[in-house]
Amino acid sequence: MSVVSKFLFLDNDFKNSGVAQADWSTKQMVWIPSEREGFQSASIKEETGNEVVVELDNGKKVTVSKDEIQKMNPPKYNKVEDMAALTCLNEASVLHNIRERYFSGLIYTYSGLFCVVVNPYKLLPIYSEKITEMYKGKKRHEVPPHIYAVTDNAYRNMLQEREDQSILCTGESGAGKTENTKKVIQYLAVVGELEKQLLQANPILEAFGNAKTIKNDNSSRFGKFIKINFDNTGYIVGTSWKSLGVSYRPKIERSFHIFYYMVTGAKDKMRGG
Fold it and tell me: Binding of ATP: at which residues (predicted)?
């Protein structure tokens, strides 16, 4: 597996392991609450009324309420690309799947129509021109989960159905909304053949609403609505930005990037004035 492939494609060695499947089949595997990890795996040993005795991975036995137990999926569903395919679709299984994929370098996971992204807080080699070409014109199930797949799907639907399309990026501060929005624009700029102009304008426009905070060096301090217009052949013909700014900021945090850019680029006489 190449350096790039390990951040996109799943290694099936574990999920296809006969040993893992046999081990799961002989035990009644479940999830129980854990203060440290959210949930932890256990096997049912005894049931009495509304309580269950379970054995943890370390061999310790504990008693929990039946209401606290959540079913575990078979090993073949480990690190599944689309969580809508899970047999047991519960909170513990969803968190486990996302976590296992993340620890394997797979930051994108589908959940039905949604694409769940976990911020890796580092640069990954999965946004190159070669990767862009890999997703062009492909159906979502034909390629690994990626923001490019979501974007291409919206682009193709626009061309085929002649209807406007929307991609909504949500999450808490530092979740990666700004970066994934950039990737959406980057992909559309390539397929719409207006890459250079659009990508160079993005950081300038972004500077008017982004600022450094305690949690994030490039936090969006405003809501963004980006509109990209295409002609009937799929080429970009224009774009517009609308924003709703945040006026309040704590004293320990910086103001918008644009003010620091202006000061940095200003002549000494202007700075002193």
Answer: 171-178
Q: For residue 68, what is the DSSP state? A: G
What total number of domains does the chain contain? 2
Residue 61 belongs to a domain: yes
Tokens 């945090």, located at residue: 253
Residue positions forming the annotated binding site? 171-178
The one-digit pLDDT tens for each residue of the chain (273 residues) are 578 888 999 876 555 567 767 777 778 899 999 999 899 999 999 998 899 999 998 999 999 999 999 999 998 899 999 999 999 999 999 999 999 999 999 999 999 999 999 999 999 999 999 999 999 999 999 999 999 999 999 999 999 999 999 999 998 888 888 899 889 988 988 887 765 666 666 676 677 667 777 666 776 666 667 788 888 888 777 766 665 555 556 666 676 666 767 777 767 777 665
Of 38, 73, 97, which marks where a domain is finished?
97
- Residue type present at position 176: G
Maximum separation of any 2 CA atoms in the chain, in Å: 82
Distance CA 118, CA 116 (A): 7
Residue 239 amino acid letter: T
pTM of the full structure: 0.78
Q: How far apart are CA 269 and CA 273, in angstroms?
A: 6
What is the span of the domain harbouring residue 89?
5-97
Binding residues for ATP: 171-178
Residue 67 to residue 181: CA distance in whole angstroms:
40
Last residue of a domain, one of 97, 120, 138: 97
List phi, psi (to 5°) of 75.
-55, -25
